[in-house]
Amino acid sequence: MSQPAGQLTFVGPRRAKPARHLADLSMADRRAAVTELGEKAFRADQLSRHYFERLTTDVSAMTDLPAAARERLSALLPDLLTPVKELATDGGTTRKTLWRLFDGALVESVLMRYPDRVTMCVSSQAGCGMNCPFCATGQAGLTRNMSTAEIVEQVVSGARALAAGEVPGGPGRVSNVVFMGMGEPLANYKQVIGAVRRMVEPSPHGLGISARGVTVSTVGLVPAIGKLADEGLPVTLALSLHAPDDELRDTLVPINTRWKVAEVLDAAWSYAARTKRRVSIEYALIKDINDQEWRADLLGKMVKNKLVHVNLIPLNPTPGSKWTASRPEDERAFVRRLEFHGVPVTVRDTRGREIDGACGQLAAAE
Ligand code: SAH
């Protein structure tokens, strides 16, 4: 299935919702849910510690709960993600998992272990409606939004594998989460914010990951960027720019037909001012499409002297696409032009290309 060029989809087809899970709920709502199940409210705290600290959903192992309570409370820990396939590379330190959701929808997450950190790349939607022509996810269209708990479960599963010592390098923890898997996180705003809260709040509320370690990446939904700035969550904002001029960006990132480069950059600067967080500008370098020196120059002028970091990503190949990564000399020239303007820039060392687990390659095929 593929979408007509430039078509944007904000709302997927109507679908049944996944079962309610502990991770969907704030602590107050968990207490209410536990009471509804006929248990004392403090059981919500116990259950939450099992889930967010010990990373367990097996109620039979929860020996601090009476047997009858275990049975009733298990209703708040339904299985939401079923692993279908796991692929690893980089000596087992990059692992992509394909998950089946309750209704058959497929999503992927990627765990990347580095010497000093572990990053989980998570999906926020099954498919994506933003239709960027160089991204494999965009080609399949939007299946549906994921629930808060479906998003959180991807991180919990990675955390569990790390805690169990299943990832080479010894037992570890998830330090970073990037919303750079499938989907446009700001098009599923409410569920994504819920998931971010579960990630950053300390136990028993959530996983206790530093908000600075969480990155929300967006094509540039301007009103939602404004809302995000007001949440009081100092997460890193990544803006997928990919072109400094409207003419080209209209075709590479079709949302640009609604909110132009100048508007989306303004939203990014407001976000930086509000949160004091450096905004990351994502720019996939595509050979002879967006990698000309004059475009680097234009980009440099537009972002210089801002609280910004430019992340250049060598384009990862996707099925059926005629585009490829830039020549090394063009990439170097692009970097040099940005440096000339004093703009902090790095070229992302993309991981997982061999397992179709790198940026823009997640298409969730079995
Ligand atoms: N919808 C969000 C998040 C998912 S994509 C967004 O667009 O930001 C995560 C990053 O990978 C984005 O910056 C996206 O533009 C980039 N990307 C997509 N396809 C790519 C490809 N084929 N090669 C390199 N980066 C790609």
From TrEMBL:
Summarize where S-adenosyl-L-methionine binds, as residue positions: 183-184, 217, 240-242, 316
Supply the name of the protein.
Probable dual-specificity RNA methyltransferase RlmN
Into which family does the record put it? Belongs to the radical SAM superfamily. RlmN family.
Q: What organism does the UniProt record list as the source?
A: Nonomuraea insulae
What the entry lists under HAMAP family is as follows: RNA_methyltr_RlmN
Binding-site positions, [4Fe-4S] cluster: 128, 132, 135
> Under which EC number(s) is this enzyme classified?
2.1.1.192
GO MF: methyltransferase activity
Q: Which Pfam families match?
A: Radical_SAM, RlmN_N
Gene designation per UniProt: rlmN
For this protein, the record's Gene3D superfamilies field holds: 1.10.150.530, Aldolase class I (3.20.20.70)
Q: What UniProt keywords apply to this chain's record, in alphabetical order?
A: 4Fe-4S, Cytoplasm, Disulfide bond, Iron, Iron-sulfur, Metal-binding, Methyltransferase, rRNA processing, S-adenosyl-L-methionine, Transferase, tRNA processing
Q: Which cofactor does it need?
A: [4Fe-4S] cluster
